[in-house]
Amino acid sequence: MTPPETPRDGSATAPPAAGPPPLQVRGLVKRYGELTAVGGVDLTVRSGDVYGYLGPNGAGKTTSLRMMLGLIRPTEGSVRVFGRDPMESVHALEGVAGFVEAPTFYPYLNARRNLEMLAAYDGGNARQRIDQALDTVELTHRQRDRVGGYSHGMRQRLGIAAALLRDPRLLLLDEPATGLDPAGMRDMRLLIRRLADEGMTVLLSSHLLTEVEDVCNRVAIVRQGKIVYEGEIAELKRGAGTRYWLQTTDDARALAVCRAQPGIGDLSTDNGRLSFTADDTAAAALSQALVESGALIRAMAPQTVTLEDLFFSLTEGDGTPVAAAPPAEPAEAPR
């Protein structure tokens, strides 16, 4: 039975591991003539991470992944996979698997026969892992069907099964949920989370915010080929703060209290409502100060910043995380 889906909020940090990290990228640049596809990427994927490489289409994510896997040579910078350079030797990719763009199979062969051919290329014990790989991606009952008849989601899952034949410690997936319907996206999230729970380190690129927020504990956000944020999603949200909307029995007095109260920032008024940013401690202290001043609170509603707010502020704005957009109307507190 598939376990219930529970979001990863990024609050837990992956435990440190001995040895070099699964993936370390420094100063990665790729130019094609005058076009700079990747303009200086720095990131570190730690052991146990589910790491989201997030950015709009055309931001350089796929080109970066190709360099990380040694498929194309960087113009500048370095890639280390478990401490080894994939451009120096194919052996640097031992323990690494995944796919860039969409996985490709022979459509006139069934799933099992496709995996048998890939296992023959890999050698070793790959063939012995076919049954387990098909079971992990829940395709055992469809293994004798021709891949040409598979849905897009089934082909994506078969791509992960093919990667699992290598028994990887690091799994790189390029846009694994693109083109999937809501049920397919849910199944993909559950699959990635299950692999992570079994100890696999996962890096996935995506432009789908819900995909990243639901499964990843750490993220790098890329804009025009450059990293504008790297770290925990929870820390990114904390750094952006929380915006509050306030209504009182005496808004003029409340405005004066807010201006004098420490920890209250970005103060503004809109249609008789006060708006400000504050952390939990400052908001609690303000509540007490308002009551003591005689400006009783009618409603005070927090609006926590979402990853979507942060994504657009970092990829379309000036690169500075902003507080959340205001809610349409705060719910009035009981009198």
- Mind telling me the C-alpha Rg? 24 Å
Beta strand %: 25-35%
- Report the strand count: 13
The SS-based structural class is alpha/beta
Number of helices: 10
User: CATH top level of the largest domain?
Assistant: Alpha Beta
Largest sheet: 6 strands, mixed
* Strand arrangement, major sheet: 5-6-7-3-8-9
- CATH-assigned fold name of the largest domain: Rossmann fold
The CATH level-2 architecture of the largest domain is identified as 3-Layer(aba) Sandwich
Low-pLDDT windows of residues: 1-16, 321-335
C-alpha termini separation = 48 Å
Order of helices and strands: EEEHEEHHHEHEHEEHEHEEHEH
CATH superfamily of the largest domain: P-loop containing nucleotide triphosphate hydrolases
Shape field: elongated
Helix content: 25-40%
Mean pLDDT: 84
The domain count comes to 2
Task: Give a nutshell description of this structure.
This protein is 31% helix and 26% strand.
Any overview of this molecule?
Strand 11 (265-270) and strand 12 (273-278) form a beta hairpin. By secondary structure, this protein is of the alpha/beta class. It folds into two domains: 23-236, Rossmann fold, CATH 3.40.50.300; 241-315, Alpha-Beta Plaits, CATH 3.30.70.100. It contains ten helices and 13 strands. It is elongated, with a radius of gyration of 24 Å. Helices cover 31% and strands 26% of the residues.
